[in-house]
Amino acid sequence: MSDGAGLSDGAGLSDGAGLSNSRGVSLVKRAGWVLFGLQLVAMLIFSASIYRHFALTWDFAIYHQAWWLIAHGNLAPFNTTTRTSFWGHHGEAILWPLALLTSPLPSGPAMLALQDLATVAAELVAFLWACDIATSRSDAGANASMPAAAVAACVLVVLLANPWTWWSIAQDFHLEAFMAFFALMFAWDVARGKRRYILWGLLLLSCGDVAAALAIGVGASAIIAGRRDRAILRTGLLIVVGSALWAVLLVLLGADQSHTLAEGYGYVVGPHGNTSAGFSQIVAGALLHPSRLLTTLYQHRLDIYGGVAAAGIVGLFTPWGAGVPTVVLLSNNLNRYQGGVFAAPGYQGFPATGFLAVGLASALGWINAKKAWLAWVVAGVVVANAIGWAAVWLPKTDSEWIHTNQAALRVLNSTVATVPRGAEVIASQGIVGRFSSRNYVYPYRAGARFPIKARIVYFILTAYEGVETVPVSGSLGAVSKVATDLHASLLGSSGGIWVLRWTPPRTANSVTLPSRSSSEPAWALNSSIGNPMTSGPPAHWSMNVASNAPSGYAIYGAYWRVLPGQYNVTVNATTSAPVNVEVWNDASGTLLERFNMLGTASAPIVAPVDITTVQNSNTFSGVPPFSVSPLPPPPGELIEVRVWVPSGTTASISSVTLRAAPGSPAPDPPGSLESQ
């Protein structure tokens, strides 16, 4: 049987060289075990911080709700976050035994801890496989050759430095970490000719339709690597055929109901896309219109590079480093869901990481057998590149995914402890994850219609905290509607979190929240000197500033995204002296307009704003050559309205409104994710 390196073997090891290589690799292995153990501890701490900060969004809610329902005896869970059965999400059968086995434990922390364990286990398997390849490929007797220990150390650095591994665990919970571990064990046993590969293959396929694609990648690698070993070649063919049949069976069993399938790949069906396309239609469209696929790949060329560069790009040119990474790169970068969000490196690309590391060891071994000096050069470049990616992107991990202030945490912790399990919860997507251990939970989506399934409905909404996908005007408009139109009771409001309790009429069967709003309630905005007045009828709520308050902003954080045009800002306020109404460009931090006016109950402040150019917000894309192509913000310029009040002035502000003048586009035009 082949050792699975996939490139021609180096010279055979002499006894002395073999002993030296064995000792050197053994030392690197010991260091690897220690370092991966420390990495696991660090990941567990990081995941605990994510959980504690409520930085768990829509995707976590999908898995957490199903996990919690299964653990509590509901073996056919309906996922209210996706509004399908959980089985229809991706056919991820493995969630049932995982949920049942961990049922005595708190489900949320258990899920994240298992994901961390699977992540590090996948890295460890890739490292140990690479060590075996390095030992078997060493060129004995060549004094200038690269020792096997150096190859193993290079792979170890690349695996530990990869920032996307950390980003993958920061992005909620997904089964890709489990898939990566099973796929690596599956492939390693195929390469070694061990029959145990059948067990790992079954575990991999139990992870659903995405895992079936990875299994096909393993089979493809086995076919290439088995060009001189007919047994591996036959095994590879069986894996490809069996995995493809499993994928078809999952479709027949209704496991392809995930909206990401049609929304991601429906563009191949027609020029305007098809958000209801099925699996067979997408396959047919891809065969008939390959140019659409090639165009999409070209648009994501920087993301393709970023996804493999940090993991050792040379591994992509070896048999075991080609199959799974190619499947991962194609499936992620051909997907246009939400503007191409899956193209960005993260959890969806993690299964490629270990295989690229294995391929790196194979490639260095092959180069070492040909020209040892070149192997040293390649290893040095790969290590320097890995460190560069880590230096640029690792420091961004925490700030990119954790966005919750301490005041907000106090409200959220109190709320999650007091909301009854039987109540329905509608929560902003940036914080919904911790509230999903119940029968009815819905992430707030702009303009969505929510069914009423319980006699009590809790709205937990925020415009500024968490990773939000709804415009600020939409979130604040939803807060205003729930309080004013639905007459819900306000239970808590601090740190930008609004908790409202609603008892719907018995005749009500649904509620629709706005996608955007031209008017934002002042009492829900930020303030440096004011105090929200939220007692009495909601129609009379306001942001109040007392006469003894210092000078400062009575309100700020009233955001809208606008295209070039003319707009009118209206501030409904009563002030004892003139105040400043300011309009700011958020992208550049520059003041666009300032008006000094007196507000009265009979004559609200109206200020014209002329937006002649648009400066889109910049998103962090890295530092060349360590760059990716992040998902762009929605079209338009993000502007903010503030009201500055001088000391000694009393003020009562009820709302801020931005309306387009005739002929100008409405604020907050539809676009991609508002924040990422």
What structural class do you assign from the helix and strand content? Answer: alpha+beta
The residue fraction in helices comes out at: 40-55%
Q: Write down the overall mean pLDDT.
A: 91
Name the beta content range: 15-25%
- Annotation, overall tally of beta strands: 21
Low-confidence stretches: 1-16, 139-144
In quaternary terms, these chains amount to: single chain
Number of helices: 21
Question: N- to C-terminal separation?
Answer: 47 Å
Note the main sheet: 6 strands, antiparallel
Q: Which word captures the global form?
A: elongated
Q: Rounded to an integer, what's the Rg over CA atoms?
A: 28 Å
What does this structure look like?
The chain is of the alpha+beta class. 46% of the residues lie in helices and 17% in strands. The strands form six sheets. Strands 10, 11, 12, 14, 17 and 21 form a six-stranded antiparallel beta sheet that branches. The chain is elongated. The model is unreliable at 1-16 and 139-144 (pLDDT under 50).
Walk me through the topology.
Elements: H1 15-52, H2 58-71, E1 78-79, E2 84-85, H3 86-90, H4 95-101, H5 107-137, H6 148-161, H7 163-170, H8 176-192, H9 197-205, H10 209-225, H11 230-252, H12 259-265, H13 279-288, H14 290-299, H15 301-309, H16 319-333, H17 350-370, H18 372-393, H19 396-401, H20 406-418, E3 424-428, E4 441-444, E5 449-451, E6 457-462, H21 472-484, E7 489-494, E8 497-502, E9 510-512, E10 519-521, E11 531-533, E12 542-545, E13 552-562, E14 565-575, E15 579-585, E16 590-597, E17 605-611, E18 622-623, E19 626-627, E20 637-645, E21 651-660
